Amino acid sequence: MCSVLMTRLLLCSFFLLARNYVMSTEYRGKSLGTLNSYHHQVGGEVFAVNEYTLLISDFTFDGSANDAFFWAGASSRPGPQGFILANEYGRTDVLKRYLGKELKLTLPDNKKLTDINWFAIYDLSKNIAFGDVYVPEDFEPPVKQIIGDFTTKSHGVSSGPIEILDSKTIKIPMFSYNGAGKDTYFVVGNGPQPSAKGRKIPDESGYLDNLRTYLNETIILELVGDTTVFDIDWLSVYDIQSKENFGWVLIPDEPNVPPSLQKVADKIENIMHCVQLHKKLQLSWQVFGPQITIRLAGQIDEDNYMAFGFSGSEEAPQMLGADIAITYIDGFRGQAMDYNITEKSPCVKVLGQYKGVCRDTLVGGLDDNQVHTASRENGINVITYRRNLQSYDVGDKEFKTNTLNSMIWAIGRMNHQKEPSVHDYFPRSVLKLDLDPKPPIDTCYPFTVNTEPLKKDVWDQSKIIDSSLRMMTATLGPSGGKKGFQGLTGLPSPGLAWFINGYLIPEIWLKRGITYVIHIYGGNNPHSSQYYHPFVITDEPNGGYDGMTEVAQKHTRILAGVQYTLRRQARPTSAGPLCLRERKGFDRRLDDNFLSFKEFNKSLDMRCEPGDPAVLEFKPNSSWPDIVYYHSFVQSNMGWKLHIVDKFSTGRNSAAQVQFNWFLGLLFYLIFTRM
């Protein structure tokens, strides 16, 4: 009896292990089979990734042939009638030695897999196939699948025909939702219809917050961790609090779709509890005695920071009054700096007092975060630090174990001075964190890593090349996210940027020996760290002269916009009243949704304070470098390039364009002087 029971247990264990192995096998596409091996130790399995692409896994070839290539054709068997496929580097070189490698090959000239009958490793000089695989006559390569519209239940949920692009990616065209749900997310799960047993997936921007309002928008969702479309039965717009399905669509069984371009990384080890804050960010923590250990893991760029700490408000994600840690990796060393936020700007010295996002040590406090470990692997930063629940710094907030803590987080870029610039990702709602949940909580999942570089999409760079230009107008406005200032310059942004004659940080061509006038509306209140921006021209690309070290100031030449005291201290002269472009009520996280600067600019309103502009008059001369930069005197990374030339090239702009640029500058001046 015992032996029978033991046998059954062993069989159950075997089948469970086998099932788990099958489920964990990576989907590479639709298999064409293993390579038939004839010579030179050819081996591997061939998959169809899509209509145009093959993937060979575990490919081996001894590389000893002198004229071997990847070869394909439409004849009945491999022979001289065929064509070469470029290797994994896009070159048609003679094949080298391969040992258990995975490589992706694309058919040339937009040929499709349905156009060929076989694929081979072939010697052109000897007309011999060293290995081959055949394409079945009725073979259907993986392609995107259209699965129908959302079935509308309530809250204005609707869409166009939903597409499964690959094993982890779903495209929803013309998606609408009225945003009235209180705890609503994109949810996937198993079973005949949506239920509370489903699991949240990030929205199109990676957020796991309550869904915003959508109106006929095309969005792309990515399944997280090792989840694929083969693991789910439905996708829903689902309110977890009310357990209500607002709209849903069924996922067909085993859709014939391409594999994802993403690889699943190993899951980051938890300390005890773990919460997925964003698709790119995880928080893990443990309270032990009077201290808390915090681990932040983020899929971020090398120059990025991860921020976590107390919100300035108990009920909303508020920067002002926040107490946060800024974590980043400086070379091989991890940092977890203690910051307080008094203004929505990088830290600057205002009338002898530091304001903005400033280190505690600059405002009279203590930095009591202790870094334990820091690492970076596969594009993922993991930083672990510790601090007391009740800090010795009276300006720091207390981590409370007997009530919920109101927390915020952010991801952004460090600037050239190793200070945080404006954050790119931040929460829509405050995180209510229980430091001692029972049982332990874990909503984290493995990060996914792109196997191919992502294409950077930026707006067109505005250029003013006008030989008749003499007058310009400078105002302020939002920097435009990753498609705007950051994408155009490659530099982090404080959130504001200069608009010259209505263009976001245009490159401007100026001629030596000509006198130019700029009317400046950058704010003239020196008490404001956010809206005080005297205009200057220097020979270095970052700006923010007032916040530079003495060494950096000595190596910077200010060409226009300041006067020097008897002690050779620079004092700005061009600080006019504030004229500011502002978003018309929409979230700045949506800046990157605009396809062009023109479209983005139309969404902004202009607000101007009364008063005459500051007037900066200057004349470039032979001592000026060929490229100089316009900046804010107090904040870095707000302006861009001035090209200084001896003469304008003929034919670079038409007479109509010259007249338009002259008229535009005059128009801006007339508008602002009458406000």
Automatic annotation (TrEMBL):
Q: Which domain of life is it from?
A: Eukaryota
UniProt xrefs under SMART domains:
DM13, DoH
Is Repeat given among the entry's keywords?
A: yes
* The DOMON domain, residue ranges: 279-412
DM13 domain: which residues? 29-136, 148-252
Annotated PROSITE patterns: DM13, DOMON
Instruction: Give the signal peptide range.
Output: 1-24
Q: Which UniProt keywords apply?
A: Repeat, Signal
Presence of the UniProt keyword Signal in the record: yes
Q: Which InterPro entries match?
A: At5g54830-like (IPR057443), DM13_domain (IPR019545), DOH_DOMON (IPR045266), DOMON_domain (IPR005018), Spindle_Org/Thrombomodulin (IPR052126)
Task: Report what the protein is called.
Answer: Protein Skeletor, isoforms B/C
Which species is this UniProt entry from? Aphis craccivora
